[in-house]
Specification:
The chain is of the alpha+beta class and about 800 residues long. It contains 31 helices and 13 strands.
Length: about 800
């Protein structure tokens, strides 16, 4: 069972940068004309009302006769880009919040995480988990005792409610356990996650629930009343039961729960390896460090320098140090692993294989892929091999450039072998010797606030959706860096909330990610009263979790629980009081990518939790996010927001072209690496993992590096323990390449001619985004492209997608 699965508002604080942060030159009495979307240097009197709100530094006067849309649009940029502006609004927001608290019943409780009062303290996760479990047990009892047709008609709805009740705690805990800087919160969230996941696993093997659902699906008088959404939800539950070994004897079902719990525990430990990666140091003679980046941290004693293997520092050494021996030493040290780390990963993979074997599957990959677009590992291999055959010549051309650069540098008579520690060094030499290499940084045109503002403008053009800064109450977020955006549809009103946690900090996962905290679903027809058996005194049961009251959405019947999501990135923020933070090209792509997931969550609003937003097959869920990356390469889109942080001048077209060309250099080599990782993921989750004695992840890694990758394997390394997606995307890493092929084709056919066209945006919204997971993905893609061959969704369709290599 897929149980997991008017007024301008103001925000919380800070910003970020990449390599260079330039402090704006501004006098203390700068004012902001929000209606003109630009700064004014004139001095004006301090607003009296703002003084009363407690502002002690620079104050910006309210402007009463401005267009609200323009004000919101410019405020959106400034809360990310201007420290003084942000401090002012933070002060105002907190004062207004205090006034609200002092005049309402909510004054008795401190607002907790995501405005859940229970989560004001770590202990709240225990309370929330117990409340959810009490409600879920009532729902299980109600479903398994459904005998009348009226109650049987509600079974699918009640199963979806059950799923949402668990996910309301599990999804929140999943995010908080990885991102909250307070260990007490992280530990409490981790407990709640494990506690409820374990119970969820037991529900996956509950034969009574399965039999009731089977009875419902075999009763025509009931199924004839189902909407297409309800059918999809019912079939999803049914197939999940079967994937969980519902047909097995009782002892085997207990083993299924045990193995599922073990996988969760091992996965958590594997994730901790990434968070607490062992940092090695290498000792090098100072005389061998010619070319070393001057800003690199190093510890020198006499003639020996000690260098850290931290990711950024290792990368700079591999890019800049001329001595090949030093680069090799750093590469091996940075990619090594302990025996215990390798054993942990192999235990995770073997346990997955054991689980798959228990339910009658040849491998974990077979079990995982059965409900995905590709359906089975053979289709994945068809896609990857077709892709590799079409793509490899381009990758070899990139490799040839590196070989020629190394031959020239080393004065070799023949083309030399390029090793993994050579890759970035010679790539940098080629880039900086190229006449097309940009000499001017584009980062000053990509302040964080400008990019967020540009995304809002882009979504407004395509979908009629925009962002508004939202007030953050005390205790609502887990860190002061977090900002909150409300998502507004021009027809439906508010459709969801996005929390932006974009800045690097110690202990935070480095990968960018999209977390679902709450999915959309209809709630006015929940019938929670019917969960309580007759004759039961509810006061003796303990507190129960209750459904969100929901909101009325314009143009839709009923009331809806709105989606809440978190976007996390690892952008470097400026030190001290330096603002704004400036992004490089790759970071802009990253932000666009994650916002693609966010839009899928906001627009994919269905009546049921289990098919809303991004709750769809993993090889389909990447499509909207990867599609967004294509928009970054459009000068027409960049003109919406790419303006110099000081002068507000639009980015020059020639600068865009030079950076696009530089960004695409060696892209074929990068795609080849993605193909390698997707194949590695498939091998690790193949039947090879069922042989506990001979299964050797390092040997498999080396063999694939020597046959598919462009660079030979390096003895002494074990990069696989750094492949974090092996847990979250186990057997599904191919999805990224699959999504790139789909997105490239859709960009070419629908958006390339005019990326700001509302009709194109509405086509993608109506045929893809709005369905969430409630419609066959092949049908969504086929309808969008008007291609019947794609709609079929068979091995031929998969092969066709593999041939879309030119669209990657």
């Amino acid at each position: 069972m897929r149980l997991m699965q008017s007024t301008t508002y103001l925000l919380q604080r800070r910003t970020f940068r990449l390599f260079t942060t330039i402090k704006p030159k501004r006098s203390k009495n700068t004012t902001y004309n929000l209606s003109r979307r630009e700064n004014s240097g004139s001095s004006e009197s301090i607003n009296t009302k703002a003084k009363q709100l407690g502002t002690s530094q620079v104050v910006f006067p309210f402007i009463s006769d401005i267009d609200k849309v323009s004000q919101t649009d410019e405020t959106l940029r400034l809360i990310f880009d201007d420290e003084d502006f942000w401090n002012y609004f933070t002060s105002r927001s907190r004062t207004l919040a205090a006034l609200e608290y002092s005049t309402s019943l909510s004054a008795r409780k401190f607002t907790g995480l995501f405005r859940n009062p229970e989560l004001a303290t770590p202990q709240g996760f225990h309370l929330e988990a117990e409340k959810a479990l009490r409600r879920v047990k009532l729902l299980v009892n109600r479903i398994t005792n459904a005998n009348t047709e009226k109650e049987l008609r509600k079974v699918v709805k009640n199963m979806d409610r059950l799923s949402d009740t668990l996910c309301s705690v599990i999804d929140t805990a999943e995010f908080i356990r990885s991102s909250h800087p307070d260990p007490k919160f992280a530990q409490a969230a981790n407990w709640a996650y494990g506690y409820l996941c374990s119970y969820m696993n037991s529900l996956n093997t509950n034969t009574e629930l399965y039999q009731v659902l089977k009875r419902v699906l075999s009763t025509p008088s009931i199924t004839s009343q189902f909407s297409s959404e309800e059918f999809q939800v019912a079939n999803t539950f049914f197939h999940d039961f079967e994937k969980s070994g519902i047909h097995l004897p009782s002892s085997d079902r207990e083993q299924f729960v045990h193995l599922s719990d073990k996988i969760i525990t091992l996965g958590r430990q594997f994730t901790q390896i990434l968070l607490q990666k062992r940092i090695n140091r290498i000792n090098v003679d100072v005389s061998l460090l010619e070319g070393l980046h001057p800003g690199l941290n190093k510890d020198t004693k006499g003639n020996i320098t000690s260098l850290s293997t931290k990711a950024w520092e290792a990368q700079m050494i591999l890019k800049s140090v001329k001595d090949e021996g030093v680069r090799k030493k750093m590469y091996i040290a940075a990619n090594s692993a302990t025996k215990e780390q390798i054993i942990l990963l192999e235990d995770l993979l073997k346990t997955r294989a054991e689980l798959a074997k228990l339910v009658g599957m040849e491998s974990y990959s077979h079990a995982f892929l059965i409900d995905k677009m590709v359906k089975n590992p053979e289709h994945v291999q068809t896609f990857l091999r077709t892709l590799s055959d079409h793509h490899r010549p381009k990758a070899l051309a990139d490799l040839r450039l590196l070989q020629e650069a190394k031959q020239l540098y080393t004065e070799s008579e023949t083309l030399p072998t390029v090793y993994a520690w050579d890759r970035y060094f010679y790539a940098e030499r080629i880039k900086f010797s190229s006449l097309t290499q940009p000499v001017t940084s584009i980062s000053p045109y990509f302040s964080v606030g400008s990019v967020i503002q540009g995304l809002s403008r882009l979504f407004s053009r395509l979908y009629g959706i925009s962002f508004e800064p939202a007030e953050i109450m005390p205790g609502e977020v887990w860190h002061d860096d977090v900002r909150k955006l409300e998502v507004i549809d021009e027809q439906e009103g508010k459709v969801g909330t996005i929390y932006c946690d974009l800045f690097s900090r110690n202990g935070k996962l480095q990968n960018a990610a999209h977390y679902t905290v709450r999915c959309s679903r209809r709630v006015d027809d929940d019938d929670g009263v019917g969960d309580i058996p007759s004759g039961v005194d509810i006061t003796e049961m303990g507190e129960l979790s209750n459904s969100d009251h929901g909101v009325k959405v314009n143009g839709r019947a009923g009331r809806y629980q709105l989606p809440v999501i978190v976007l996390t990135c690892d952008f470097m923020k400026p030190k001290g009081r330096q603002y704004p933070s400036l992004l490089n090209w790759v970071e802009v792509e990253t932000l666009f990518h994650e916002m693609g997931h966010a839009m899928h969550s906001m627009i994919g609003r269905t009546n049921f939790h289990n098919v809303s937003g991004t709750r769809c097959p993993t090889d389909f869920v990447e499509l909207p996010s990867i599609l967004m990356e294509h928009f970054v390469y459009s000068p027409k889109v960049l003109s919406l927001f790419a303006r110099h942080y000081e002068t507000r001048e639009t980015v020059p077209l020639d600068l865009i072209k030079s950076h696009v060309k530089a960004r695409l250099q060696f892209s074929a080599m990068e795609t080849q690496s993605q193909i390698f990782m997707a194949l590695l993921d498939q091998l690790y989750h193949s039947k090879l993992a069922t042989d506990s004695k001979s299964f050797d992840t390092t040997a498999i890694l080396y063999n694939l590096q020597d046959t598919v990758e462009l660079f030979p394997s390096v003895p002494g390394t074990a990069w696989q323990v750094q492949f974090g997606h092996l847990f979250g995307y186990g057997a599904g890493y191919y999805s990224y390449l699959f999504g790139r092929a789909l997105a490239g084709k859709i960009w070419k056919e629908i958006f390339e001619k005019d990326p700001l066209n509302r009709e194109a945006g509405q086509l993608f919204r109506e045929e893809v985004l709005k369905w969430g997971g409630s419609r066959d993905p092949w049908l969504c893609i086929g309808k969008a492209l008007n291609d019947d061959k794609i709609i079929v969704g068979d091995s031929k369709s998969v092969s066709i997608v593999g041939e879309w290599v030119d669209f990657l």
